[in-house]
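Batch manifest line 259
LIGAND: adenosine-5'-diphosphate
JOB: complex structure
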Amino acid sequence: SPKMGAPMPAKQEVPGVKHIVAVASGKGGVGKSTTSANIALALSAMGLKVGLLDADIYGPSIPKLMGASGQPEVVENRIMKPLEAHGIKLMSIGFLVEETTAMIWRGPMVVSALNQMLREVAWGDLDVLIVDLPPGTGDVQLTMAQKVPLTGALIVSTPQDLALLDARRGIAMFEKVAIPVLGVVENMSHFICPDCGGQHDIFGHGGAKAEAEKMKVPFLGEIPLTMEIRQQSDTGTPITVSNPQSAVSKAYGLIAAGL
Ligand code: ADP
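JOB STATUS: finished
ARTIFACT:
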């Protein structure tokens, strides 16, 4: 887009990183970051070397979710050492500047910050780098899709119509720039009541699966709305780490295996 000032260099590999997978959602608050973190951890539990890049500049939540804080050490010539938590390498704008600083950045600054967090980091050898994108389909997401050599994108949506509509836009954006959509995940798919044991479809149920089928992209699985997911995210030890035998962690594992 002509609005974008500082361009990212043309698509070039990130040395040592085999696959880069973007996690996207049409709108905020659908659980994109929670899904990114748990899938990254599930991939790590499968024995892969994993990194997690928080590209959600305006609302970085990976530091809190992964229980990581502090500033990255600069090793040589501007190159930063990623932080590490639960066996995963991490980079986030939350480690670099005050959140309020990043909040006032315009597109070009955001793109150059993303470029720095992607390419000026000593990731080492990684099998997969999960990129938690900002919500929506704006210039930043489009630039990432065009300039970063993505293996593919994972779309997170709730079953709600509005989220689905936005997710559809996300799928269309990736298809337009020829990035394969690896699959769709339905988050907050249903609620199992701890008191009555019944299943309640708070935001509806099955919508993302139907949509994925319609758009001919794989449906990778559904994650329920549970207290444990939210509580563990808040403590900085996601459920995949704290309770790997739970049904939810197994569901994250299946999604990771389906990528
Ligand atoms: P996004 O990245 O899409 O903005 P987040 O991952 O930050 O969304 O999630 C928003 C809030 O919802 C967080 O408080 C998170 O802990 C909670 N949350 C996400 N997914 C679930 C879930 N499946 N069950 C319960 N809470 C969830």
